[in-house]
Specification:
With 120 residues, chain A is an all-alpha fold. In chain A, 76% of the residues lie in helices and 0% in strands. Chain B is mainly α and 193 residues long. Classes of the chains: A mainly alpha (120), B mainly alpha (193).
Amino acid sequence: MAENLKDILSHLSSEIDQETLLLYLQDKLTAEKKHEVEKKLLDNEFAEDAVEGLQSIRDKQHINYTVEMLNRDLKKKIAKKKERMEKMRIKDQPWLYISLIILILLIVIAYIVIRKSLPG
Amino acid sequence: MNADKYKHISDQELLGNFYATHDAEWLGILLPRYTLLLLGVCMKYLKNEEEAKDCVQQIFLKVITELRKYKVEYFKSWLYMVAKNHCLMKIRDRHGKIPVELTERNVLGAEEQADKLSLVQNDQTIDLMNKALEELSPEQRQCVTLFYLQKKSYQEISDETRFTMMQVKSYIQNGKRNLKLMIERKLKNGTRQ
Protein backbone atom coordinates (compact mmCIF):
# COMPACT_ATOMS: atom_id res chain seq x y z
CA MET A 1 0.00 0.00 0.00
CA ALA A 2 2.73 2.45 1.01
CA GLU A 3 4.70 1.53 -2.08
CA ASN A 4 1.64 2.15 -4.25
CA LEU A 5 1.21 5.55 -2.64
CA LYS A 6 4.77 6.40 -3.63
CA ASP A 7 3.79 5.83 -7.28
CA ILE A 8 1.71 9.00 -7.14
CA LEU A 9 4.80 11.11 -6.59
CA SER A 10 7.36 9.14 -8.55
CA HIS A 11 8.56 10.35 -11.92
CA LEU A 12 10.79 7.51 -12.98
CA SER A 13 10.88 5.49 -16.19
CA SER A 14 7.90 7.02 -17.97
CA GLU A 15 9.11 5.82 -21.38
CA ILE A 16 6.58 3.89 -23.44
CA ASP A 17 7.68 2.20 -26.65
CA GLN A 18 5.71 2.91 -29.82
CA GLU A 19 4.62 -0.71 -30.17
CA THR A 20 3.00 -0.76 -26.71
CA LEU A 21 1.39 2.60 -27.34
CA LEU A 22 -0.12 1.32 -30.60
CA LEU A 23 -1.49 -1.77 -28.84
CA TYR A 24 -2.95 0.51 -26.17
CA LEU A 25 -4.64 2.66 -28.80
CA GLN A 26 -6.00 -0.42 -30.55
CA ASP A 27 -7.35 -1.67 -27.20
CA LYS A 28 -5.29 -4.85 -27.43
CA LEU A 29 -3.71 -4.75 -23.96
CA THR A 30 -4.82 -6.50 -20.79
CA ALA A 31 -6.31 -4.36 -18.01
CA GLU A 32 -3.05 -4.67 -16.06
CA LYS A 33 -0.90 -3.53 -19.00
CA LYS A 34 -3.37 -0.76 -19.76
CA HIS A 35 -2.99 0.50 -16.22
CA GLU A 36 0.81 0.45 -16.57
CA VAL A 37 0.64 2.50 -19.78
CA GLU A 38 -1.81 4.98 -18.24
CA LYS A 39 0.41 5.38 -15.17
CA LYS A 40 3.36 6.17 -17.40
CA LEU A 41 1.26 8.55 -19.49
CA LEU A 42 0.47 10.64 -16.42
CA ASP A 43 4.19 11.31 -16.06
CA ASN A 44 4.93 11.79 -19.73
CA GLU A 45 3.34 14.96 -21.09
CA PHE A 46 4.61 14.36 -24.62
CA ALA A 47 3.09 10.86 -24.83
CA GLU A 48 -0.08 11.96 -23.09
CA ASP A 49 -0.69 14.74 -25.61
CA ALA A 50 0.08 12.29 -28.39
CA VAL A 51 -2.37 9.69 -27.13
CA GLU A 52 -5.06 12.34 -26.89
CA GLY A 53 -4.47 13.21 -30.54
CA LEU A 54 -4.11 9.62 -31.75
CA GLN A 55 -7.35 8.62 -30.06
CA SER A 56 -9.16 11.01 -32.39
CA ILE A 57 -7.97 9.03 -35.44
CA ARG A 58 -10.89 6.83 -36.46
CA ASP A 59 -9.00 3.96 -38.06
CA LYS A 60 -6.50 2.93 -35.37
CA GLN A 61 -5.23 0.04 -37.51
CA HIS A 62 -4.09 2.60 -40.08
CA ILE A 63 -1.87 4.52 -37.66
CA ASN A 64 1.02 2.08 -38.00
CA TYR A 65 0.94 2.41 -41.80
CA THR A 66 0.92 6.23 -41.56
CA VAL A 67 3.91 6.13 -39.22
CA GLU A 68 5.78 3.82 -41.60
CA MET A 69 5.05 6.11 -44.54
CA LEU A 70 6.29 9.14 -42.60
CA ASN A 71 9.46 7.28 -41.65
CA ARG A 72 10.04 6.19 -45.23
CA ASP A 73 9.61 9.77 -46.40
CA LEU A 74 12.07 10.97 -43.75
CA LYS A 75 14.62 8.40 -44.89
CA LYS A 76 14.27 9.55 -48.50
CA LYS A 77 14.69 13.20 -47.55
CA ILE A 78 17.78 12.43 -45.47
CA ALA A 79 19.29 10.38 -48.31
CA LYS A 80 18.68 13.26 -50.73
CA LYS A 81 20.21 15.76 -48.32
CA LYS A 82 23.21 13.49 -47.87
CA GLU A 83 23.65 13.14 -51.63
CA ARG A 84 23.59 16.91 -52.02
CA MET A 85 26.11 17.30 -49.21
CA GLU A 86 28.37 14.69 -50.83
CA LYS A 87 28.28 16.60 -54.12
CA MET A 88 29.19 19.79 -52.32
CA ARG A 89 31.96 18.00 -50.52
CA ILE A 90 33.41 16.78 -53.86
CA LYS A 91 33.56 20.42 -54.94
CA ASP A 92 35.52 21.19 -51.80
CA GLN A 93 38.10 18.48 -52.40
CA PRO A 94 41.65 20.00 -52.27
CA TRP A 95 42.96 17.65 -54.96
CA LEU A 96 40.58 19.29 -57.37
CA TYR A 97 42.15 22.68 -56.75
CA ILE A 98 45.67 21.23 -56.91
CA SER A 99 44.88 19.58 -60.26
CA LEU A 100 43.51 22.84 -61.58
CA ILE A 101 46.65 24.75 -60.50
CA ILE A 102 48.89 22.09 -62.10
CA LEU A 103 46.86 22.27 -65.30
CA ILE A 104 47.11 26.06 -65.41
CA LEU A 105 50.87 25.86 -64.74
CA LEU A 106 51.26 23.33 -67.56
CA ILE A 107 49.38 25.61 -69.93
CA VAL A 108 51.56 28.57 -68.93
CA ILE A 109 54.77 26.52 -69.33
CA ALA A 110 53.57 25.18 -72.68
CA TYR A 111 52.80 28.74 -73.80
CA ILE A 112 56.25 29.98 -72.76
CA VAL A 113 58.00 27.03 -74.43
CA ILE A 114 56.03 27.52 -77.65
CA ARG A 115 56.71 31.28 -77.59
CA LYS A 116 60.47 30.69 -77.11
CA SER A 117 60.64 28.02 -79.78
CA LEU A 118 59.03 30.28 -82.37
CA PRO A 119 61.56 31.92 -84.77
CA GLY A 120 62.19 35.65 -84.34
CA MET B 1 21.28 2.26 -41.64
CA ASN B 2 18.96 -0.27 -40.02
CA ALA B 3 17.07 1.28 -37.08
CA ASP B 4 16.75 -2.03 -35.16
CA LYS B 5 20.52 -2.37 -35.21
CA TYR B 6 20.71 0.83 -33.16
CA LYS B 7 17.92 0.02 -30.70
CA HIS B 8 20.40 -0.24 -27.82
CA ILE B 9 21.85 3.22 -28.49
CA SER B 10 20.30 6.02 -26.45
CA ASP B 11 18.92 9.23 -27.96
CA GLN B 12 21.78 11.13 -26.40
CA GLU B 13 24.37 8.90 -28.03
CA LEU B 14 22.70 9.14 -31.44
CA LEU B 15 22.62 12.89 -31.12
CA GLY B 16 26.27 12.85 -30.06
CA ASN B 17 27.15 10.83 -33.15
CA PHE B 18 25.30 13.34 -35.31
CA TYR B 19 27.18 16.26 -33.78
CA ALA B 20 30.48 14.41 -34.21
CA THR B 21 30.00 13.38 -37.84
CA HIS B 22 27.36 15.84 -39.12
CA ASP B 23 25.81 12.83 -40.82
CA ALA B 24 22.02 13.28 -40.91
CA GLU B 25 21.56 9.51 -41.10
CA TRP B 26 21.95 9.46 -37.31
CA LEU B 27 18.86 11.64 -37.16
CA GLY B 28 17.23 9.15 -39.51
CA ILE B 29 17.54 6.65 -36.67
CA LEU B 30 16.65 9.03 -33.87
CA LEU B 31 13.58 10.77 -35.32
CA PRO B 32 11.52 7.66 -36.22
CA ARG B 33 11.53 6.84 -32.49
CA TYR B 34 9.20 9.83 -32.11
CA THR B 35 7.10 9.69 -35.30
CA LEU B 36 4.05 8.25 -33.53
CA LEU B 37 4.26 10.81 -30.73
CA LEU B 38 4.71 13.65 -33.19
CA LEU B 39 1.74 12.48 -35.23
CA GLY B 40 -0.34 12.35 -32.06
CA VAL B 41 0.67 15.82 -30.89
CA CYS B 42 -0.06 17.27 -34.35
CA MET B 43 -3.44 15.51 -34.38
CA LYS B 44 -4.27 16.90 -30.94
CA TYR B 45 -3.71 20.47 -32.06
CA LEU B 46 -4.69 20.40 -35.73
CA LYS B 47 -7.56 17.88 -35.56
CA ASN B 48 -6.98 16.87 -39.17
CA GLU B 49 -5.08 13.78 -40.26
CA GLU B 50 -3.70 15.15 -43.54
CA GLU B 51 -2.59 18.40 -41.94
CA ALA B 52 -1.03 16.44 -39.07
CA LYS B 53 0.98 14.29 -41.49
CA ASP B 54 2.27 17.38 -43.32
CA CYS B 55 3.06 18.97 -39.99
CA VAL B 56 5.15 15.95 -38.88
CA GLN B 57 7.17 16.17 -42.10
CA GLN B 58 7.74 19.88 -41.55
CA ILE B 59 8.82 19.23 -37.96
CA PHE B 60 11.33 16.64 -39.20
CA LEU B 61 12.86 19.17 -41.58
CA LYS B 62 12.88 21.85 -38.92
CA VAL B 63 14.62 19.53 -36.46
CA ILE B 64 17.30 18.55 -39.00
CA THR B 65 17.98 22.21 -39.77
CA GLU B 66 17.89 23.43 -36.17
CA LEU B 67 20.13 20.68 -34.82
CA ARG B 68 22.84 21.75 -37.25
CA LYS B 69 22.71 25.24 -35.78
CA TYR B 70 23.01 24.55 -32.06
CA LYS B 71 23.54 21.85 -29.48
CA VAL B 72 20.50 20.36 -27.78
CA GLU B 73 20.89 18.78 -24.33
CA TYR B 74 17.52 17.14 -23.66
CA PHE B 75 16.35 15.94 -27.06
CA LYS B 76 12.90 14.63 -26.11
CA SER B 77 11.82 17.76 -24.22
CA TRP B 78 13.23 19.94 -26.96
CA LEU B 79 11.45 17.96 -29.69
CA TYR B 80 8.16 18.21 -27.80
CA MET B 81 8.61 21.96 -27.53
CA VAL B 82 9.45 22.29 -31.25
CA ALA B 83 6.40 20.18 -32.19
CA LYS B 84 4.02 22.12 -29.97
CA ASN B 85 5.30 25.49 -31.18
CA HIS B 86 5.04 24.39 -34.80
CA CYS B 87 1.42 23.34 -34.26
CA LEU B 88 0.62 26.59 -32.46
CA MET B 89 2.16 28.50 -35.37
CA LYS B 90 -0.06 26.55 -37.79
CA ILE B 91 -3.14 27.39 -35.73
CA ARG B 92 -2.09 31.04 -35.65
CA ASP B 93 -1.75 31.02 -39.45
CA ARG B 94 -5.24 29.54 -39.64
CA HIS B 95 -6.94 31.96 -37.28
CA GLY B 96 -4.63 34.96 -37.27
CA LYS B 97 -4.24 34.70 -33.50
CA ILE B 98 -1.00 34.63 -31.55
CA PRO B 99 -0.84 31.69 -29.17
CA VAL B 100 1.61 31.66 -26.30
CA GLU B 101 4.89 30.17 -27.45
CA LEU B 102 6.51 27.55 -25.28
CA THR B 103 9.96 27.98 -23.92
CA GLU B 104 12.17 25.28 -22.44
CA ARG B 105 11.04 26.53 -19.05
CA ASN B 106 7.55 25.13 -19.72
CA VAL B 107 8.90 21.66 -20.34
CA LEU B 108 9.74 19.42 -17.43
CA GLY B 109 13.46 19.59 -16.88
CA ALA B 110 15.91 17.44 -15.00
CA GLU B 111 15.84 19.82 -12.05
CA GLU B 112 12.10 19.39 -11.53
CA GLN B 113 12.46 15.61 -11.77
CA ALA B 114 15.12 15.69 -9.08
CA ASP B 115 12.74 17.65 -6.84
CA LYS B 116 10.07 15.03 -7.30
CA LEU B 117 12.51 12.25 -6.53
CA SER B 118 13.49 13.89 -3.24
CA LEU B 119 9.80 14.17 -2.41
CA VAL B 120 9.35 10.43 -2.97
CA GLN B 121 12.35 9.61 -0.85
CA ASN B 122 11.15 11.72 2.04
CA ASP B 123 10.15 9.54 5.03
CA GLN B 124 7.33 11.81 6.08
CA THR B 125 5.71 11.65 2.67
CA ILE B 126 3.72 8.42 3.10
CA ASP B 127 2.01 9.64 6.29
CA LEU B 128 1.28 12.97 4.70
CA MET B 129 0.01 11.26 1.58
CA ASN B 130 -2.63 9.34 3.55
CA LYS B 131 -3.78 12.57 5.19
CA ALA B 132 -3.75 14.50 1.91
CA LEU B 133 -5.74 11.77 0.17
CA GLU B 134 -8.57 12.40 2.65
CA GLU B 135 -8.55 16.09 1.75
CA LEU B 136 -9.18 15.49 -1.95
CA SER B 137 -12.66 15.87 -3.42
CA PRO B 138 -14.63 12.56 -3.25
CA GLU B 139 -14.39 12.06 -7.04
CA GLN B 140 -10.66 12.70 -7.14
CA ARG B 141 -10.05 10.50 -4.09
CA GLN B 142 -12.08 7.66 -5.56
CA CYS B 143 -10.34 7.77 -8.94
CA VAL B 144 -6.83 8.21 -7.49
CA THR B 145 -7.39 5.31 -5.07
CA LEU B 146 -8.76 3.01 -7.77
CA PHE B 147 -5.96 3.92 -10.16
CA TYR B 148 -2.88 4.01 -7.94
CA LEU B 149 -3.81 1.72 -5.08
CA GLN B 150 -6.01 -0.83 -6.83
CA LYS B 151 -4.11 -0.54 -10.11
CA LYS B 152 -7.21 -0.33 -12.29
CA SER B 153 -7.25 0.99 -15.84
CA TYR B 154 -9.23 4.07 -16.91
CA GLN B 155 -11.80 1.79 -18.54
CA GLU B 156 -12.30 -0.29 -15.39
CA ILE B 157 -12.63 2.85 -13.27
CA SER B 158 -15.10 4.29 -15.75
CA ASP B 159 -17.17 1.08 -15.64
CA GLU B 160 -17.11 1.04 -11.85
CA THR B 161 -17.80 4.71 -11.16
CA ARG B 162 -19.96 5.58 -14.21
CA PHE B 163 -17.69 8.56 -14.87
CA THR B 164 -16.67 9.02 -18.52
CA MET B 165 -13.11 8.12 -19.48
CA MET B 166 -12.29 11.83 -19.86
CA GLN B 167 -13.64 12.54 -16.36
CA VAL B 168 -11.62 9.65 -14.90
CA LYS B 169 -8.46 10.93 -16.55
CA SER B 170 -9.13 14.46 -15.38
CA TYR B 171 -9.89 13.40 -11.76
CA ILE B 172 -6.66 11.38 -11.65
CA GLN B 173 -4.56 14.15 -13.18
CA ASN B 174 -6.00 16.85 -10.93
CA GLY B 175 -6.00 14.58 -7.89
CA LYS B 176 -2.35 13.74 -8.43
CA ARG B 177 -1.42 17.40 -8.88
CA ASN B 178 -3.38 18.42 -5.78
CA LEU B 179 -1.74 15.68 -3.72
CA LYS B 180 1.71 16.88 -4.71
CA LEU B 181 0.87 20.48 -3.86
CA MET B 182 -0.65 19.50 -0.51
CA ILE B 183 2.37 17.39 0.43
CA GLU B 184 4.84 20.08 -0.62
CA ARG B 185 2.87 22.59 1.47
CA LYS B 186 2.70 20.25 4.47
CA LEU B 187 6.43 19.49 4.25
CA LYS B 188 7.23 23.19 4.03
CA ASN B 189 5.02 23.94 7.05
CA GLY B 190 6.62 21.02 8.91
CA THR B 191 10.14 22.35 8.41
CA ARG B 192 9.12 25.84 9.53
CA GLN B 193 7.67 24.58 12.84
